[in-house]
Structures
1.
Amino acid sequence: MHFTSETSSDGVTRRGFTLEGVPGVLWQPDGPPLGGRPLVLLGHGGGGDKLTVAERARRCVVRYGFAALSLDAPGHGDRPRSAQDERFVTEIGELLAARRPISAWVARHTAALAERAVPEWVAVLDALDALDEPDVLGGPGRRLGPVGFWGLSLGSVVGIPLTAAEPRIVAAVFGLTGHTAQTEAAERVGVPLEFVLQWDDELVPREGSLALFGAFGSREKTLHANPGGHLEVPDFELEASERFLVRHLGIPE
Amino acid sequence: MHFTSETSSDGVTRRGFTLEGVPGVLWQPDGPPLGGRPLVLLGHGGGGDKLTVAERARRCVVRYGFAALSLDAPGHGDRPRSAQDERFVTEIGELLAARRPISAWVARHTAALAERAVPEWVAVLDALDALDEPDVLGGPGRRLGPVGFWGLSLGSVVGIPLTAAEPRIVAAVFGLTGHTAQTEAAERVGVPLEFVLQWDDELVPREGSLALFGAFGSREKTLHANPGGHLEVPDFELEASERFLVRHLGIPE
């Protein structure tokens, strides 16, 4: 894990890093180290990048004392794009503009993208857990605190198999997704989760999202559905998901 | 409006009253009057009564400084029961025990009960607004503050047409219900609402609840769905509905 930049403003330290060619950002409170502190992994949506979630990350740090981390998904942000990646971003934009559901091709592409992204997130957690940087983790022997995941749309396409595979993640916020290809991974998710659904989502058919919610193996799972399209999640759901994460990750002392 | 009892404990004053033969209870903070204070109307479920919601009422007063009010529904609590009312309570218990959906007969009975209950709630709001009791409302000229409604199951069967008819109600929490007979009233509801659904509700088919949620005319409406049966709404939904009401009614100064 190679830290490439460090800035501080309004009490929040932001560090850029790369790990095996994957660029990411880590936010944490100025001063106190990361060790033992709850960490929220933030997965961005299709066409976004690691800084799309910067405002959410800052809120996690300032309001709750959490750390937050995001990665560029394959083919996004500062990462090289294949011809298929380019086609994906173009097609997502066209589908949104035309208010049409995600095509089978986009669903296959994001599933393949998730297969690449999941081991990248696991590698980042491994690297953080083994980090020997006193300023970041608090020195050798300090471990990560409880880890949560938040990511909608493409963030969930990645986050659902990640959460199914990664025992360090203890709570997750998903949503704006729902294809039968995700059912198997969803059944293996057992942690408490909140699932955000847009009732009039033009990309994701309602029935697919409801079926995916039903498939999760978690004993505690809550569906939050609101009117409006894919990009119209109400602001109060931002706060609701933060309270959910606070309830499961705790507030650091 | 005739006050019949008054007790105080832990900072909460509880007054029993009757209005045209309907018994009710009003909770408010000790001392400061009701005038201008947010008021939450609490509708109890089938087979319950005005005190079934007492703990929720106390939380409204102690945590948020609200007032709260509940009434015995027709055929419930201290009110006379017809043979049909007796049969309703028996049948609800049998359906729950057998984990079977609400019968057409119970749906018709509760719809008829709601037709009686709605004008009773309206009469209580009228009486409170006109009340000349300085200890309660703060004297002549003091008006009610913003009014919210909370009630699940039978509470919603009454609350949905009440909220459709009563402009003083500015926000509502409904749930655990959903029959096509409620669609027309739901379409006339325009205030922000939160709708609680139990994914494995043995009395209310999921499709009926989802369709009812879709029918509400409100621009702001949020569905909260959780696993479990009719009586297994998670405790965290209690807090979620309180936060929803606080967001729309405000906290008194």
2.
Amino acid sequence: MNIKVKWLKNQLANLKLDGMIITNPVNIMYLTGISEEGTLIITKRENIFITDGRYIESVNSKLTIEDEIVVYNSKELDKYDYENIFTMDDNVGFEENYVTYENYKKYLHTYRVNLIETEGMLENQRVIKEEEELECIKKACEITDKSFEYIIKNIEEGMTEKEIAFEIQKFMIKNGADGLAFDLIVASGENSSKPHAVPTDRAVRSGDIIQFDIGCKYKGFCSDLSRVVFMGRIEPEYKEIYDFVLNEQKRIINEFKDGANIRTVIKNIEEEYKAKNFSVAHAFGHGVGLEIHELPRLQAKTDNILKENSVIAIEPGVYIPGRFGIRIEDTFKINKMSCESLTKCTKNYVII
Amino acid sequence: MNIKVKWLKNQLANLKLDGMIITNPVNIMYLTGISEEGTLIITKRENIFITDGRYIESVNSKLTIEDEIVVYNSKELDKYDYENIFTMDDNVGFEENYVTYENYKKYLHTYRVNLIETEGMLENQRVIKEEEELECIKKACEITDKSFEYIIKNIEEGMTEKEIAFEIQKFMIKNGADGLAFDLIVASGENSSKPHAVPTDRAVRSGDIIQFDIGCKYKGFCSDLSRVVFMGRIEPEYKEIYDFVLNEQKRIINEFKDGANIRTVIKNIEEEYKAKNFSVAHAFGHGVGLEIHELPRLQAKTDNILKENSVIAIEPGVYIPGRFGIRIEDTFKINKMSCESLTKCTKNYVII
């Protein structure tokens, strides 16, 4: 049996649960490598993946006998088959943060068990990355770095944000990415003031800030990188904000390592923002893995201790509505004594 | 007040509900045009949109006084503000098909009301398109048609599936699309046998089938088009399947109009598939609108009456595992007496 499913079975035993129903595709991918639609069911006796005719062939081609996962076609299962997966009165875990209220009720009816909340058990486990997961994230970061280096050599005045975003995407895919980690952001001039800007037909011109927020996927794992470049020249005001943001990122990096309390660090950063009258509406970062936003949360609300081998994006930014914004972001791995940048492209002023 | 919110308030009154909490972003977009993150709350007294600091500015810029929607910053609301939105003992609708079990419990705690399931009320209403929604879908279909016509003139032997998919995407965006309706499918040779193929580095070559499944968004509304083209020549076997699929699509089109029962039509088509020993694992179509897959479902399981001004994609296909597949798909508007194709590009054999 693969080590992650084995881990899960141990967890369930500790929690006195008789099994678990897993439907969040990201968690299924995490546990089994299966990316096809379906439901993963862990019982005391066996591990089952229920899918349909479209996917049987490709799921079976991915699994080996050592996975100990039996694949079923949902069309071949009837009411009684479902009722017999578990024993009546079994306590079965489910993903209360993924399953809709409607499906919760359907599960009760289908499986005839007691459904027990698992409190984000799988999402919490995903925080700590295995060696091979880290390798995928590193590769995604490497492709992202290269795509940034490529684009800053190829931007010309008059290109639109959309065109620039395309060139980045094309470069990423050509260089081995499975796809994008999210819709790429290329925001120029006043558009940069919106943290979630969508590329427009605005052409870049001299004097512009261009904000990039880009990332790709490699074997399912994400990268996240934000950089700002300047067209032709840097206004002194831009420089000032750039230095502030870069400095805040450095301050976070210096504090982050295994055992650090995210709350304390972020609280201090928020104080400095407030002293300058900058908004703290936008988060300072997030975990990165199979999802572009996953645990841990980088917020000052609750205590949250960083753990070795977790991966996070740290992205302080300053946004001045209607004028401009500057965000600097890298993807980091948390080490025993440090916070190691997996994205490595330059943070010097880039003027093109 | 906008007519959709007015409609919803009437519905809630008919159902003896005192309000509704709406969190599905597609439903919020449908009702209000707001695409920013947040929660829309309808009470007897007022309509509220709760968002955060990142979005206040852009939401307010979209709304007019006639919308009668009050925008709040969630950071400025405390526990008691939330409890006072409704009156205790109010019966409040929620989206049980969207809200997770975890959030269901949070809502109970936050709003202190009785939460009542609304049985997909909003999704069912979205089936019937307004005139201006139809205009957006038509425009999305027009861009998609053009992108197909463009790509068949520009494919050359040796281009990879990924490269071809890029060119289509680029053309769509250049020609006014907001973005893609879904990850485009370009699947050549044996890859075409997978209905959900992802573009690969396989280069197209003489004798290949190339399966396209492409669509874009215009002002949030989707289009969906599938075509097959042949590189260099058509194998007789391909021709036979192509004709069968095209004929099945025609048979569906001939039956579909206001008042037709989807179940009956699809059942007949499934019989013909079974007579030829073709799999019916893949659905024959789906509703299209703000989402690429929405109601109605095109399946033979339950009675389902087609309604005027709904929009559906009809996509029969035949998939021969490990060898090839052929799917033909168009986006249609259901009229009183007909099924009108909104995508219009050729369905003759295309050899390139």
